[in-house]
Amino acid sequence: MKKVMFLGGAMMQLPAIKYAKKQGYYTILCDYLADNPGQYYANEYYCVSTTDKEAVLAIAIEKEIDGVFAYVSDPAAPTAAYVANQLNLPSNPYESVVILTKKDLFRKFLQDNGFNCPKADSFKTLKEAREKIKEFHFPIIVKPVDTSASRGISLVKSIEEIEQAFLNAISQSKEKKVIIEEYIEMSHDYQIGGDVFVLDGKLAFCGFLNCHRNKQLNPLIPIGKSYPVMIEDEKAELIRQELQRIIDLLDIKMGAMNIEAVFGKDHKPYFIEIGPRNGGNMISNLLELITGIDFVQASVECAIGNHSIRMDFEPKEEYYSSYTLHSAKQGILTDITFSKAIEENIISKYIYKDQGTAIDIFTAGNKALGFVFLKFDSLEEQLYKMDHMNQYITVNVL
C-alpha cells in the first residue's frame, strides 16, 4: 500500500486527501491547527507545522512514505520538496521551490535571467523603505515576501500611504520582510491566471483563465475566474514559451503550478507570481469542469511517481466561471441569497460558513465564504454577470 503524506488539512485541501483515500493509499497528515478538518479523513494525523522541515522529515522517515504533497499551499511547498529531496522521492528541487514561494527571490530570479520584471526591492524596516521609495514611480504594490491568498497586499498611490501599507504587509510576514514593486498597468481587461501542469520537465497543460476582482472592495484580491481567457493566441503562446524557459532554468520536473501574469502597456509579458502548487479557490475543480481532466488525481499521482496521466482535451466554445462568495461587512452571517437570474447559471455551490457564524470582511483569500461554479450561454452574459455579481448574489450580515 502506497503511503502519502499531506501537508495541510484545511477545507480547500480535502479533495487531495479524499482522492488518496478513495484509491486505497495510506494517508498521513501534518497540520499545526488542532481543529483542521483533514484529520477526520486521513489515516494518521500529526499536529506539526507544515513549515517545520525537520519535524516533518522525521515523521516521513519513521512512516516510510512513498510521496509527500502540499496541495494548494505555498508555505508548505518548500517543506514537501525538502522532505522529498532528502528521501529521494518524486519532487522538484528544493532551492527552486523556495525561489517560487519567496517573492523577493522570484523577482531577483526574473531580473537575473532576462525576464520582464517591474522595479522591485525588499525591506525589513519602514525606514529603509522610506529612503528608497523616492526611486520608485507610483503607484506601487506593497506585500509580504512570503504569504499567499493576497494577505497583506496593498496598492499605494502616494508616499503618504506607505506607512500603513508597510505595517500591514510586515504584520503578515513570517520572515518580517516586505517587497515593494512598481505597479504594472495592463493592456487588457483581466489579469491572466490559472494552473499549468508539468510532466517530465515539459508543459503538458496550460489552463489560462481570466481573473475577476471586486474593484469596490479590493482591486488586488481575486473574486472569480472565467474561461475562455481573453488574450490573443500569440500572447498565450508567448506566455507558454516564457513559462517553459522558467521551468528549464529551475529544473522543474513535475506537478501543478499556479500562475498570475499580465501584459503591460508596453505589450510585454510579466509574471506576477508563479506558485509551485495547485491554485487555491478551487481552480482544479473549475479546470476539471472545462477539460474533463482530474487535476487533483494528477497531482497526487505525480507525488508518488506516477506520470502516466492524460492531459489532452479538445477546447469547446463554452463559458465557465467560478465565483468566490465573500462579504464586504463583518458580522454574523444570516444567509446568502441567489437571484433567479443567476440560479439558472449555477452548476454547483460550496458554502463553508453556516448561518449564524461570525464572518470577516474579504481582505484576503482565506476570508472566502465558499464558491459557486457557473456556466453561461454567451461571452457577453458571462462577462456582464461576473462583473456585476453583487446584483445577483447577496451576502446578508447582521
UniProtKB/TrEMBL annotation:
InterPro entries membership: ATP-dep_AA_Ligase, ATP-grasp, ATP_grasp_subdomain_1, CPAse_ATP-bd, PreATP-grasp_dom_sf
Species source reads Neobacillus paridis
Entries under SUPFAM superfamilies matching the protein: Glutathione synthetase ATP-binding domain-like (SSF56059), PreATP-grasp domain (SSF52440)
The protein, known as:
ATP-grasp domain-containing protein
Q: Does the keyword ATP-binding apply?
A: yes
User: Which key words are in the record?
Assistant: ATP-binding, Ligase, Nucleotide-binding
What top-level branch of life does the organism fall under? Bacteria
Span of the signal peptide:
none
Where does the record place the ATP-grasp domain?
107-304
